């Protein structure tokens, strides 16, 4: 779980870095990007404490995240928000499935710490998704195919990162 989440939050920081390269001086993106960095720090910290190695796919997520971020932003600001909405939808559900699973674990200090981090990230991702929708995430003419592509890529990345 820690490796998957660390990979996901790393990918998120790359995604926003890609968007910010195209949409300069965008306060919403800056704010979301800062929160993704915080999320990454939380999981980096846990990975260090529990001696979890980062996924071997990290360099790929760097390129894919940045690429998808830039690509969506080049389609316009609303498409960049479509991408945010789609990623967050997958991540919110992913975090929920982890929380459901962790409820069955013995509530040790490290399990509670992981749960707290997941809850904090999940609640931020919910506000990112709501903000993206409020800013027109579903308004772009290509919103549906872009969201579908983004969700598939996100699910694939999560699946791979949890393996190795
Ligand atoms: Fe995040
Ligand atoms: Fe987010």
What does the model show?
This protein has 164 residues and is mainly alpha-helical. It has one domain: Ferritin (Up-down Bundle). Helix 1 runs antiparallel to helix 2 and helix 1 runs antiparallel to helix 6. The longest helix has 26 residues. It starts with a helix and ends with a helix. The structure holds fe (ii) ion (FE2) (2 copies). One fe (ii) ion (FE2) binds next to helix 1, helix 2 and helix 5. The site of one fe (ii) ion has 7 residues, from helix 2 and helix 5.
Quick synopsis:
With 164 residues, the protein is mainly alpha-helical.
Task: Please write out the topology.
Blueprint: H1 2-22, H2 27-49, H3 58-74, H4 77-102, H5 109-134, H6 143-163
Helix pairs in contact: 1-2, 1-3, 1-6, 2-5, 3-4, 3-6, 4-5, 4-6
Bound molecules: fe (ii) ion (2 copies).
Task: Give the tags.
164 residues; globular; mainly alpha; binds fe (ii) ion; single chain; 0% strand; Ferritin
């Amino acid at each position: 779980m820690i490796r998957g989440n660390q990979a996901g939050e790393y990918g998120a920081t790359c995604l926003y870095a890609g968007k910010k390269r195209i949409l300069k001086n965008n306060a919403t993106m800056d704010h979301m990007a800062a929160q993704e960095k915080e999320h990454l720090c939380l999981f980096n910290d846990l990975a260090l404490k529990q001696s979890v190695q980062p996924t071997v796919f990290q360099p790929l997520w760097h390129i894919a995240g940045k690429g998808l971020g830039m690509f969506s932003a080049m389609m316009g600001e609303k498409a960049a928000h479509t991408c945010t909405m789609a990623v967050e939808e997958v991540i919110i559900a992913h975090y929920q499935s982890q929380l459901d699973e962790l409820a069955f674990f013995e509530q040790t200090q490290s399990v509670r710490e992981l749960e707290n981090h997941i809850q904090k990230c999940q609640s931020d991702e919910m506000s990112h998704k709501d903000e993206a929708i409020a800013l027109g995430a579903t308004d772009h003419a290509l919103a549906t195919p872009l969201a579908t592509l983004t969700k598939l890529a996100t699910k694939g990345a999560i699946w791979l990162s949890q393996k190795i």
